[in-house]
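Can anyone check this?
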Amino acid sequence: MLDPLIVGKVVQSIREQKQLSQEVVSGLADIGRTHLSAIERGVRKPTLETFFRICEAMNVKPSAVMKEIEDKIK
């Protein structure tokens, strides 16, 4: 089962490593900042479309993000 907390922590970690604000990523991904915040806190699960948009906004391959999520689940 996919844990939204793990997804959120990985997204937040990558965003912070790239020194991007929630405002910048959410703007580039064309989603609300509060929506991104809810994803990062594990309150909401991103759709596949939103996941891809967030990854593109952070200039990272979705497969790389998913690999990190899978590693944390194990």
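Reply from J.R.: I decoded it. The radius of gyration is 11 Å.
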